[in-house]
Write a structure and sequence with these properties.
Blueprint (H helix, E strand, L loop, with lengths): L2 E6 L7 H10 L9 E2 L4 E5 L2 H11 L4 E2 L2 E2 L1 E4 L9 E7 L5 H9 L4 E7 L6 E7 L2 H11 L3 E2 L2 E2 L1 E4 L3 H4 L4 H14 L16 E6 L3 H5 L4 H10 L2 E4 L9 E7 L2 H21 L8 E6 H8 L4 H10 L2 E4 L11 E7 L2 H26 L1
Helix pairs in contact: 6-12, 8-9, 9-12, 10-12, 11-12
Length: 357
């Protein structure tokens, strides 16, 4: 997809060649044509990274024939809807702080980090409604955060012009590919297989499997589940992902049993502190778990007596679209929180799947 940029506040004396020269001098060469109008122009970049670099390097910073130029995404009124881009985010900002900030203005359906070569972070945010996106733009533009000032633009919301929502489809799709293993072609929403993925400290994997695999066999038998321990992944890592496929009740029961085994093991090896429950969830679902102004998460914490944190924006990459939800509390409290967290994530996932189908 091309990233069309609008260049505004140009002097009438500016020519297309002036713009080419200027962009070239700034190491932002323009490949396509420059569409010059009176006082403004349009240019295209095939790559979002280049577009971001052009906006960051030039907008409000460069003078041409005595006028300071403005550069931003060119988004027609029709496509100004629910999607915005936030740039110049402090690199160490925690995901949940950003999520909390975004949630003040409405329901965030999706946040994706754009992999850029800038030291600051860039995210594309989709709100549930165009009104919420509009308010977010007004309130967050220039929002100061630890000496960083947010830069915000609309980005084209293709869903407005096309009846079928491609963005959603792709996201649901991504989750289902991440999660895999849909049961034999059944299409009812209830049958959607949405496994629980948790991270388990490597030192407890042996205890969960048990001698000759007896412990894990016992768990799967009692809970009618399938438990995959991905021991090959991240060799040498301190934690291993574990995927549990079962009914929601079976999943929660298996999770509780695993938590009990880990706690018992920790007590015996004198690692006496509480072992947190770490749930992996696709980034596209996490906004809806958090809820507007963090309400959903606070409610779960309050009702279960746990403390829940969510991994930061920086840990996320194209290769790892999952966020880590860390739940701290007693085994009982963590197990109860898992039920509520998975209920929210499953609901978000099912809504995405319905949107796709």
């Amino acid at each position: 997809m091309m990233n069309k940029l609008y260049i505004g506040n140009l002097s009438p004396a500016v020519t297309a060649d002036d713009l080419r020269q200027l962009f070239g001098d700034r190491k932002l060469p323009l490949a396509g044509q420059v569409l010059l109008k009176s006082g403004y122009a349009f240019v295209d970049y095939p790559d979002q990274n280049w577009a971001i670099r052009a906006i960051e390097t030039l907008s409000g910073k460069v003078e041409l024939h005595g006028k300071i130029m403005e550069v931003d995404y060119s988004v027609s009124k029709k496509l100004r809807s629910r999607k915005i881009q936030i740039r110049n985010i402090p690199p160490h900002l925690q995901w949940e702080v950003l999520d909390g900030l975004l949630a003040q203005y409405g329901t965030v359906e999706n946040v994706e980090q754009v992999n850029t070569d800038t030291e600051t972070a860039v995210v594309n945010v989709t709100y549930a409604t165009r009104e919420e996106a509009k308010i977010a733009i007004e309130k967050l533009s220039g929002h100061q955060f630890e000496n960083y000032s947010f830069k915000i633009s609309y980005i084209p919301d293709e869903e407005v012009s096309s009846p079928s929502p491609p963005q959603r489809a792709q996201r649901g799709d991504h989750s289902s590919r991440e999660q895999g293993h849909a049961p034999g072609g059944s299409s009812q929403a209830r049958q959607i297989d949405f496994p629980l993925r948790i991270l388990v400290p490597t030192q407890f994997v042996g205890a969960i499997i048990g001698k000759e695999g007896l412990t894990i066999k016992n768990i799967t038998k009692q809970t009618q589940s399938r438990v995959d321990i991905h021991r090959k992944e991240n060799s040498g890592a301190a934690e291993k992902p574990v995927t549990i496929h079962a009914t929601p009740e079976g999943t929660s029961e298996a999770c509780r049993m695993i938590l009990e085994i880990m706690q018992k093991e920790a007590d015996e090896t004198k690692l006496a502190e509480e072992i947190p429950l770490k749930i992996l969830a696709h980034n596209g679902l996490v906004g809806r778990l958090i809820g507007k102004e963090g309400r959903n998460l606070k409610k779960i914490e309050h009702e279960t007596g746990t403390k829940i944190t969510i991994s930061s924006l920086q840990d996320l990459s194209i290769y790892n679209p999952e966020r880590t939800i860390t739940v701290k509390g007693t085994v009982e409290a963590c197990a109860n929180a898992e039920v509520e967290i998975m209920k929210k994530l499953r609901e978000a996932f099912e809504n995405d799947m319905l949107a796709v189908n």
